[in-house]
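hiii, so i know i said id send this last week but things got crazy w the move. better late than never?? heres the sequnce for the chain we talked about at the cafe, plus the structure i predicted for it. fair warning i was half asleep when i ran it
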Amino acid sequence: MRRIMDALSHTGISLGHFLGAFQQRESLAQGTVSAETSLATPVQTTKHQCPICEKSFQTSSALSGHGPARCAIKHGKELPS
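okay and structure toks below
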């Protein structure tokens, strides 16, 4: 489970969105929800992107935890003003 959580955090997808999409696919496969209903309500995500490496995060706190300043040092770049 920890590996899944880590992989999702690196892609910027929350566990809730991942599980919601999984449940939607299962419902479609079982025929309990029509494709039209499923596709009519797209999942909206807010992405917060590192200005240095362009990695996306679901929340601003996740981006802060990533540390754009440390990322700039790691990649030998300057932080944008």
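btw The mean pLDDT is 75. thought thatd interest u
miss u guys!!
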